[in-house]
Amino acid sequence: MGMVFGKITVETPKYEVLQACADYEIRKYAPSVIAEVTYDPSQLRGDRDGGFMILANYIGAVGEPRNSKPEKIAMTAPVITKTPEKIAMTAPVVTTGESSSSSRVTMQFVLPSKYTKAEEAPKPTDEGVVIREEGERKYAVVRFSGLATDKVVNEKVETLRRSLERDGHKVTGDHLLARYNPPWTLPPLRTNEVMLPVE
């Protein structure tokens, strides 16, 4: 029931707040192990979140885990999405990808902290799922509730970019979208974040 009302009861990534202001936080994230899949939504009936079920199958969130052990892996939050950057006439609009002409999306699950090295995590049976390590990293983050539509996310990213430029922070890459709740959570009670890597 808590998931309908937005309560986050699963493990979330560890971070230290380096700076907090009215507009955003600067966070330093601890190293982690992630499972990710990169896909073309047009091959999944246009579903931009089509990678979710691939990763859910890997960890065994639905049915038997599709990994070499097979071992059920606890779900964590958030689910992180990187999409190709689109350039509007005035500013960047979306996020990361392999190239601006690509329509591929990358979705990531941060694995539970008991996995400290990629080789400790069960090997996926789906060749599209990649397990890799992410080192310590620094992000500027804005949290918001409601539906994370493209329009809302783009507005949050552009506002965050302007705030960071104003305060002298250097953005070093494209944004990530972090969503903490399942789709059946009531929209006003959802927790979302846009994250921009900074120096």
TrEMBL record:
Q: Per its UniProt record, what InterPro entries does this chain match?
A: Reg_factor_effector_dom_sf, SOUL_heme-bd
Q: Which domain of life is it from?
A: Eukaryota
* Entries under Gene3D superfamilies matching the protein: Regulatory factor, effector binding domain
- A Pfam family name for this chain? SOUL
Write down the PANTHER family for this protein, in alphabetical order.
HEME-BINDING PROTEIN-RELATED, SOUL HEME-BINDING FAMILY PROTEIN
Family affiliation = Belongs to the HEBP family.
- This chain's protein is named SOUL heme-binding family protein
